[in-house]
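quick one before i forget lol
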Amino acid sequence: MGFEDRALAIPKEICASADITQLIAIRYSQAKGKNRESEVKQMFDSHHKDLSVLPYSSKSAHEFEYKIKGICRKSLANFSEIIVDISAMSKMLILVLIVVLLKERKNIRIVFSEAETYAPTNVEFNKVFQRSGSLLATFAGQPTLGISTILRSTCLSSSRMQGQPVCAVAFTSFNEELIRHSIGTLNPHRLVLINGVPPSTESHWRALATQRIHKKLIEEFSEDNPINPESQLLVRSTSTLDYQDTLKTLIEIRSKFNIYERLIYFATGSKMQTVALSLLKAAFDDVHIEYPTPDSYFFNEYSKGIGKQWQLLIDANTVIDLQKMEA
């Protein structure tokens, strides 16, 4: 139950469905913005839908996976399909839910509502982007600022190849500090960046913008981050919406570097890029994922309105298919 407008989009659709018999809402115990819990509850109550609320604390994110496992084995044991609305979820929630549900052999239908507009606008970005290639800390349209902590969970961890050289894999965003801090704790000998390209043509400028923000990192690790001379984008640029595009790139990276290096992935991309990362972890136990959380959100500017809605079905055999793909 997040703070964005789109947090209410899918619940409205659910209220109109007679097939959905059990509802679980996740409440952020340390919400950093307006929580839409009361609106969601009122919506379900008016349609006579029973709703149970599961608290989630980022301070004990590792405990949440055990709660989900218990729910899967008890109250959700007889359900053939679990619908997961990721529209208002943090990336840590997306990662844990998908990994645990697939490990428990559940079929998942992921539903996702885009926002109508996202921060920042092109005009805002160009106004405040410094010649040095970094954003002003007081940038009002910046969606997130700084870094709070790095979240970890047992289901996202791996001890494989400890002591070997570290290859960090991360996604570009409007908050470079997330990656800066993450690799600062690791001192990796290699950083592989994946840029995000929005699906709509009018938003393609965002791919170049996030790449500009990470320009110094790209130059520092230039050998592993080649630029396409035609598009001027990183060769490893994938859709922020099409999870299969990102998943293909993640598997290519894993195949190239996984033999002699310890790969650590940082969930700094879009929600659907995070879905791809979740599937990679569900398929391969040696994948290790960490989530650097922003220190603060500019809630009024983060996103506005409700855009297109999407859904995708991930059956429990997906992990087997991915293992065959790599082989």
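fyi The CA atoms of residues 175 and 226 lie 21 Å apart.
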